[in-house]
Amino acid sequence: MRIEDYALIGDMQSAALVGRDGSIDWLCLPRFDSPACFAALLGNDRNGHWWLGPTGRRPADRRRYRPDTLILESEWDTPTGTVRVIDFMPPRDVNPDVVRIVEGVSGTVEMSTQLRVRFDYGRIVPWMRRNGGHLQAVGGPDSAWLHSPIPLRGGDYAHTATFEVKAGDRLPFVFTWHPSHEPMPPQIECEDQLVQTEVMWRGWVGACSYQGPDRWRDAVIRSLITLKALTYAPTGGIVAAPTTSLPEDIGGVRNWDYRYCWLRDATMTLDALIGSGYLEEAAAWRAWLLRAIAGRPQDLQIMYGVAGERRLPELELGWLDGYERSRPVRIGNQAVDQLQLDVYGEVMSSLYLARTSGLGPDERAWSIQRKLLDYVEEHWDEPDEGLWEVRGPRRHFVHSKVMCWVALDRAVKYVERFDRTGPADRWRAARDKMHAEICDKGYDPHRNTFTQSYGSHELDAALLLIPMLGFLPIDDPRVTGTVAAIEKELMADGFVLRYPVAEDNDVDGLPGGEGAFLACSFWLVEVMAMQGRKEEAAELFDRLLALRNDVGLLAEEYDPRYDRLVGNFPQAFSHVPLIHAARALSKLM
């Protein structure tokens, strides 16, 4: 299946991808970054999956989320009747549950199911046994139970069943994980959990402050729900995506693990949530941040585990063939050791926004921020790997320098607005020095554009952020020239690339190409809106919305060569700028 053929369900601690054919092909338990027990997404069915649908296994005729929820409904029309499968993960009490309710809509439909549990990313075939009428899988530290209204038969290292569903029937299936050393967990009441899950999601969406045009409301709300689903509730950490190794280049090596909390992605997510009225998430994330980065400022990482873990070693799983043979499959992320100076500006900007939006003061937060600012002052003029985590040589990336400017700019504003103690005069002087250098070394006067790095000729879509960050006004000729250059040189089939990717360009140090990074195109929408280009911005925004799959989800990139979504899915870094772009456009309507 294509990446866009999947839908997301989750309980704000983990998530599953459900295919159009009714197969759950990806599920990590008990956390987003735990080993997968269903890993067919990165291999095949024998690496673990749970299929449930009409006999014959074909795509659903239609599917949708119940309005303002993360409850998925898939429907099949067959010659003998219509059947619906309701998939969801109820907010967790102790153990994670995946609930699948088969509902007969009309006539009689023959249904089938196949369960293959494979712990440790498809590597461990568990010991299966029946216990009290239920099916149990045990493998090392993991155990899972299937509570089924019908018996499943074992064979070929799988368990299967065929059964009939008539109009009005409702048959609940529950898959529950727990540590193998613990006793069997209590079985949940599926119908009650369905009601409670729907009430929870609708109540959360009801607090949204979006006031834009109705034509974009569904896209904004679905993006907000997706961002909420990527939040790890126990700690407040926010993962970039629930998947690993979905390729940016089909068949290539640009395959990364995104099941961690990037400071950059999380701060951008917080901006979107705060702007939509969700301060509770901002408070939880600030608490997570302070725990995660506690210590010396020079030890700040660009990403952490969902509970603040620092060691995220990158490994390759040789037994998995990869999505459409895109190898290697990676877990962990080597970029954790990179120097990315822009994250300091992201953190300062997000914390400043949270305070200006009504989040109360925190003395410990300000103390840590001051330590981070000391580091920025000392190291801002060093080369780094930058926003895009290049695996080539370090460079003086213009975006990184601009974000260091942002860090000091927000620090000055903190002192001025909230009467905080700090060397504001020194920060102002350092900020102004940075601004002058960036405009001197990062700008090409002959082409009238900022460049990707000092002295380079390449462009970078991150330069679109310059006016949004307040570094220069939107009508500054240098901004106008940069936007025009990006539209001329970095667009492919009407969408924006991150930067030039070619054999003679060693910026990222990787072979192969990639699709159009969706966040960059949404940034262009926002800039167009700031420039007053209402019709152009709305047209591009609508074309971007058309790239969403049938249930409103976006991956990291869109590859116009194959007319497909590529990269990890769903991607917070795509849904966040969608929300910002909708907000910017709404001001023109």
UniProtKB/TrEMBL annotation:
Q: Which InterPro entries match?
A: GH15-like, Trehalase-like_N
Residues in domain GH15-like?
Answer: 217-582
Q: List keywords of the entry alphabetically.
A: Hydrolase
Per its UniProt entry, which superkingdom is the organism in? Bacteria
* UniProt GO MF annotations: hydrolase activity
Record-given protein name:
Glycoside hydrolase family 15 protein
Tell whether Amino-acid biosynthesis is among the UniProt keywords: no
Q: Which residues form the Trehalase-like N-terminal domain?
A: 2-149
Could you confirm whether the keyword Chaperone appears in this record?
no
